[in-house]
Amino acid sequence: MKKPFLSIALASTLTFGAIGTQVVFAQQAGAEQEQPLKVFDHKVIKHINAENIYNNIAYLSKTPRVAGTEAEDNAVKYIKEQFESYGYEVEIQPFQYYGYTPPHTVQLSVAGYDGELKPASFTYTVSGNVSGDLVYAGLGKKEELTNMDLTGKIALIKRGDISFADKVLNAAEKGAAGVIIFNNTSGDVNGTLGGANDQYVPAVAITQAEGEAILTKLNSGSKLTASVKIEGARTGESTSHNVIATKKPTNKQKDTNKVIVVGAHHDSVAGAPGANDDASGTATTLELARVLKNVPTDTEIRFVTFGAEELGLIGSTYYVNNLSDEDKERVIANFNLDMVGSRDAGDLVLLTLDGKPNLVTELAQASSERLNGAPTPYGQGGRSDHVPFAEAGIPAALFIHSPSEPWYHTPEDSIDKISKEKLQDVAEIVGAAVYDLARFDSMGPKPKKGPKVKADADMYFEQAVR
Predict the structure, then answer these.
(1) Secondary structure (3-state) at 236
(2) What is the mean pLDDT of residues 174-189?
(3) Category of 234 on φ-ψ map: left (φ > 0), alpha (ψ -120 to 50) or beta
(4) What's the Cα-to-Cα distance from 305 to each of 196, 240, 397, rounded to whole Å?
(5) Band of the pLDDT at 100, cuts 50, 70, 90?
(6) How much helix, strand and coil, in percent to the nearest 5, is found in the chain?
(7) Which residues of 63-86 are buried (b: 16+ CB within 10 A; e: fewer)?
(8) Fewer CB within 10 Å, N or C, the chain?
(9) What are the start-end ranges of the H helices in 274-336?
(10) What would the pLDDT profile of 192-229 be if each residue is shown by its tens digit?
(11) Are 427 and 12 in contact (CB under 8 A)?
(12) Is the pLDDT of residue 51 over 60?
């Protein structure tokens, strides 16, 4: 649920918002008016170091950080320590949720097939250790299985036409002990069964090449047996955490009593190191916290990394729902950074829940225009941590590159795919936008709106379920 890019100068950025304001001297005009803006921006951007962001991504993406697992707990500890090293007092906000924990072991063997198999699990697949004769079951549609008895067998099914969940349920209804689904196109399958179901049997995914090679063996008359082993998968109560570092206004007497929230999610999907999704946003949030720690501001800034985003925005929803009514009134902007560093993604865009501009987009368009010569375009998009803020009436926007990289939610989302230039650009745009709002006596005209764009987040969601 993310995507976009920006030019090395400063066109891509993401996170939460602030008001695109500028100090304008009434006596000045033209280029003379721009000079103070460059001075204020420079107080932030001159200190941003993409190497710091990159190094934090490298650490966080050593292993998948699935919500509710020890790996996510270790990420939370690391983020807390980084915030503390910058001088922040840090709050760890635990929350419980009913959700899915992916397996730690996924194995597949096919006796009689000599090729190497690299199976992947589906979100919500169940644990089990099953073996049986391998039978090809087409696309797994009910009408295809009408006259088939799959009792005790492993069904080999091709991706397409119906959801992964329906394929598994249809095969299970005919007695299958397990299911193997192979892709109908090149690349890995990174799919979900959509939700928990007691009728599921253990199911794994393999590539198109692997599936077609096995099918060729079956069609030649070879009798194959398969074994599917999945361990550690479960659905139930789990605990995740949000990490919160707060920068109070420099001068209490000039406190605006307003709050800006800058954040990203620190969890990843199973099997994916999550370098771009979303160690990039988390690491950029850390760098902005470091840079903004000692600049004078009259507005409170909260830097938050959220848990369990990949399971349905659980951490950010918990955070917003547990704000007091007074706090909800105080929070005036949310900058949400999600997938902001991939070298292979498209251009940076700003996505709001309703597709309309707001304070965050205005601030970011103003800063990108000052820094890059053109305002970053905006569009409509959800499925990331800006959504709970927007639903609470708080101006919020997602910073993301669109379209996303080909290895979105795959094991290939690794540190070697990260662009330091994009990281620098996004951090500068967001940092300048946040400081524009948070600095003392910020005021000025709204910038012109950039072009509206169409986001592709829905397409990626569809690819995950079928």
Answers:
(1) strand
(2) 95
(3) beta
(4) 27, 11, 16
(5) confident
(6) 35, 25, 45
(7) ebbbbbbebbeebbebbbebbeeb
(8) C
(9) 280-292, 314-321, 325-330
(10) 999 999 999 999 999 999 999 999 999 999 999 999 99
(11) no
(12) yes
CA separation for the pair 450, 140 (Å, rounded)? 47
Predicted pLDDT at 122 = 93
State the Cα–Cα distance between residues 256 and 240, nearest whole angstrom.
Answer: 32
**Would you call the peptide bond into 403 cis, given omega within 30 degrees of 0 as the criterion?**
yes
Q: For 223, phi and psi rounded to 5 degrees?
A: -95, 120
Strand-pair partners of 120: 205
Tokens standing for 291?
Answer: 């840079």
Instruction: List 301's β-bridge partners, or say none.
Output: 247, 260
Residue pLDDT, tens place only, 24-40: 222 233 333 444 456 88
Strand 178-182 and strand 154-158: the pairing is parallel
Mean pLDDT of the chain: 89
Beta-strand relationship, 128-136 and 225-231: antiparallel
Has residue 276 got a pLDDT over 70? Answer: yes
What CA–CA distances, in Å, run from 303 to 50, 107, 290, 413? 18, 40, 10, 24
Q: Residue 227: which H helix or E strand, with range?
A: strand 225-231
| Whole-structure pTM value | 0.78
Report the alpha-carbon distance of residue 179 to residue 153 in Å, rounded: 9
CA-derived radius of gyration, the chain: 24
Pairwise CA distance, residues 281 & 272, whole Å: 15
Residue whose structure tokens are 């073996």: 131
Q: Report CA-CA distances (Å) from 73 to 92, 102, 308, 312.
A: 11, 15, 12, 18
The helix (H) or strand (E) run that includes residue 398 is strand 396-402
Identity of residue 21: T
In residues, how long is the chain? 466
Task: Return left, alpha or beta for 129; rule: phi > 0 is left, psi -120 to 50 is alpha, else beta.
Answer: beta
Helix (H, G, I), strand (E, B) or coil at 410: coil
pLDDT tens digit sequence for 426-448:
999 999 999 999 998 765 444 45
Between 104 and 75, where is the model more confident? 75
pLDDT, one tens digit per residue, over 364-411 is 999 999 999 999 999 999 999 999 999 999 999 999 999 999 999 888
Res 465: pLDDT = 66
